[in-house]
Amino acid sequence: MLQDKTGQKFVPLKSDIYQEHLIVKRRSPREVEMFRLRNEITIGGNGSQEVPNPIQSFDEVSFDGLISRALNRQGYANPTPIQAQGWPLALSGRNVVGIASAGSGKKLAYILPAIEHVSAQLPLERGDGPIAVVLVATRESAQEIQKEIFAYSNPCRLRSICLFGGSYRNIQTELTTPGYEVVVATPGRLLDFLCERRVNLNRCTYLVVDEADVMLDMGFEPQLNRVFEKTRPDSQILMWSSTWPRILERLATKNMPRFTQINVGAIVSNAGNEDVIQVVDIVKEEEKLLKLKELLTEIYDTSDHPGKIVVFAERKSCVETLNAFIGSFVRCESIHGDKSQADREQLLRDFRKGAYNILVATDIASLNVPSVKYMINYDFPNTVESYLLRIERTGLALTPNSKSFTFLTNLNEKQFRPMLKMLKDANQPINPDLQRLSTEADSRSKKRRANRRGQSKS
Fold this sequence. Notes:
The chain is α/β, with parallel strands linked by helices and about 450 residues long. Strands 1-8-2-7-6-3-5-4 form an 8-stranded mixed β-sheet, with helices on both faces. Helices cover about 40% and strands about 15% of the residues. The protein folds into 2 domains: about 20-265, Rossmann fold (3-Layer(aba) Sandwich), CATH 3.40.50; about 275-445, P-loop containing nucleotide triphosphate hydrolases (Rossmann fold), CATH 3.40.50.300.
């Protein structure tokens, strides 16, 4: 029986539960290569040797009959590329990093193997913690994923629970008492329950980090590392993301000595999206309100039905100011962290239904808004990667002829150069002012470095 450095003994783990279909096994390397090429699937990581062949239909994966019937009821025709390659890897017990865009089917890529994994383990005993844990960035995502898990786990009689901040803590505490096989949680709330010993990870052998790039962008790296430290050493870890920034690469390498990486489509790190027209305007801070009004007027003059518009601001106070300003001439609503969960959900439902078409928000809304036509970055985020995440998470690339408008000021000087490079890589038109300011910022930076070298020598 496995034990850790403290002498803690663990229940035996059964991780490799994959039964490769004979058709999949007999496919030639050439057939497999062509399938991956057609679907833009690439394999990497230090565990990329002897990767199982991707499946090409639901009949080729050995899910429990109850899961297969639930899958059929959803009306899906075929697995998505991330599922086609991700399911065999996850069911084989491998550590996985999956990189694919929003709407690619990443959730089912880890949910269905999670249910199979849980079903293959010994039943929970009194006092045992969950077998599968899914970490997500926000409570909205946690609730959404738990609903998806319930649709497939309920027929298998597996219990799941959702833990997140901002909800009735005493109810969640009561629910964790009997023990649940699957827990979906935000990192902070899970750590709270771990510290209070309401939950333990002694039985956790399937750990998922979804929206990994978003969580790192939100500053959750310390919490994630603490969860990894509390997880048993033989756990299977799966990270899922829309982008592959260096900070995520470091997190994966640190916590997974060996992992297989699946990429579907181009990897978004600092590469932009060619499907979205990205317009950058250099303005003074005091001009931004006027520029915003001019831009919205132009959008509304172009069409009576301009489509959905999201305006991003960095601070909650700024969101409220913009909401009042825009609301003086056209209906809009706002979302930020100070609004209650119920209010935010209702506002998003109304936005989806078209009750209003302008939403002013902090980045908290970029995880759950539907496809939009226009994204306006009233405030530029801290990094270009965060800017790209806004495009990704609002589904901007899924809407034909969509546009992103960005206001840059002197306060964003550190982002001039990376923004310019990203726009060039994405074959976007370059604002001459951005080119000039980027060159000037580089020159100032070189002078500062030269001065520091001179001072150190003296």
